Amino acid sequence: MADDKTSSTKRDWQPETALVHGGIVRSQFGETSEALFLTQGYVYDNAEQAEARFKQEDPGYQYSRFGNPTVTMFEDRLKMLEGAEECRATATGMAAVTAAILAYVKTGDHIVAARALFGSCRYIVETLCPRFGIACTLIDGTDLDAWRAAIRPNTKMFFFETPSNPNLELVDIKAVAKIARDAGILSIVDNVFATPMLQRPLALGADIVVYSTTKHIDGQGRCLGGAVLGSTYFITKYVQEWVRQTGPSISPFNAWVMLKGLETLPVRVRAQCATAAQVADALTKLKGVTRVIYPGRADHPQAALAKAQMPGGGQMIAFEVEGGKAAAFRALNAMRLIRISNNLGDAKSLVTHPATTTHFKLTPAQRSELGITDGMIRLSIGLEASADLADDLNTALDAAYR
Ligand SMILES: *Cc1c(COP(=O)(O)O)cnc(C)c1O
Question: What value does the mean pLDDT take over residues 186-195?
């Protein structure tokens, strides 16, 4: 099965090349496109081989909950892009976050997390972890002193996302990872909004990166998936064991979709960033828009940090309209091309009103702490022509204030 011409261990390719060729293992048929191995189990030539496989003296597969060739191709390709020693794919982004945290911490430990987290991530650290005696302190992730001040003798992990959802606040990865490292704490970065094309948390000093590959890695709104990347020690000892024993394994079919998604990721991200920059600029001129938040714009409050850690402004835009929820709803309802959905990272541009959907479970005080106003709208830029998107937004905002 091994294919010498496309060794998955080659490391000096540019990202675009690694994302097309990395990780391929061809079967005896020499297929061009990566094979989809829809199989639960594997057969052995003899009982001795089965024994050796279970003793891990023979490197083959045993059962697709533990590993699968298509899933391995996806993991190897993603790990080449990320520059990680090891990668484990999971069924969803939340399975990846849960595995990265719970596989490592135990009762009596403490986690520090930025409070601007994806809703379910916040549930994991704020609600689920404390049920098992794992304490959590939520802080303002943009404040380096707050990270330092929250450290306790039993702090084991720092967890944050950057840019954050939905208000696109940035955390200084290099600085926070250094604070963690100096204190013997592992740092985990949820890198979904930036994508692996725009931000390299491991290169900036973080220990672990997690993805919802559901978003830009699939990129076409089809399958759920996730991944945890980090050192061989962390992934093998903690994450692989967790996935193997508790079962949040990705379907080989979904892994195959993600594997093919990686091939076009650089092209899509480049196009979406260019479109997002144009749409963000266009939004500033539209009726009722009081504020546009886009990390690629010079008026982003952390523009310098954005420039330093993200070579591109990303595909997400947040903006605020005058007139609160009623005006925001009128604008959303008047959009024809851009569809209302709480999802993001699709080829189709999607819009959501965070205060009443993704963040409705937070109290008004918690929302205001995160800067999520009733007039805030989140926009995920797809692959359409920017002129058509700008036109849709212009028409919708005109209608909203008529
Ligand atoms: C979507 C998302 C998740 C969760 O991923 P699923 O694949 O939906 O489980 C986690 N973090 C961020 C930032 C996300 O956008």
Answer: 97
